[in-house]
Amino acid sequence: MFRKPMVAAVVLLVGLACLAGEELTLKGSTTVLPIAQLAAEVFAERFPEVAVSVQGGGSGVGIAALIDGTCDIADASRAMKPSEWARAVEKGVYPYHWFIASDGIAIVVHPQNPLQRLTLAEIKDLYTGRITNWKELGGPDLKVVTISRDSASGTYEVFKELVLSGEEPSAPGMLFQPSNAAVAEAVARTPGAIGYVGMGYLNPAIKALAVAEDEAGPYVLPSEEAVISGTYPIARPLFMITNGFPEGVVRRFIMFILSDEGQRLVSELGYVPIRSLAG
Fold this sequence. Notes:
The protein has 279 residues and is of the alpha/beta class.
């Protein structure tokens, strides 16, 4: 059973560190946040002398914090942009991307919406304002309420690239949310809503739609199997980024995430581990 992700903005302090203990700070993607939080809890059980602080805020926020030296690990649901690389090198920071999981971006609606599937073109039409009522897609006579992540989000960047072909979401009255959890909550309370979240945020209060690249199909629901096989069309890697090849407690934490134990936590939360796990 998947553990329910916590609210993205929360700061989780794990472990009782003595004055001589070590500290570790992670910041960034709210998609990666549940992985970082659960891993921090388990890591603290192994290394109680380490105090781990885990914060959300979005991929861009985490990457900026790594460049500015205010976190040890940036959680990111996208790779760094050229402008971020340039700023990092200017400040003597040499980012190292650690591939820690894969994820599918689920297209979600209110459970009362009878629609079961959409093509990428239809999703684009919804988010660019070309379709404004669900009856245009065979659904109820109900105004579409588009809900998007904010521009600091890696999920926003990937959605814009893979679904909107680089266009900015521009539907009239669009609501922007600061986290995956906020998107899921907004969709759950709005019958006409459509949103997008990482697979770890799927829950019974929202309904994931099957997605196809075009009308010929196949229409595929987001799942671990579909992401691994490449049949789900809105998938992406997830990263933890360090300043160079890490040492000390940072390296210990990264190695834990990449271990079989860490990857089982990834799978438990509804994300896709980086390799097959025995048992």
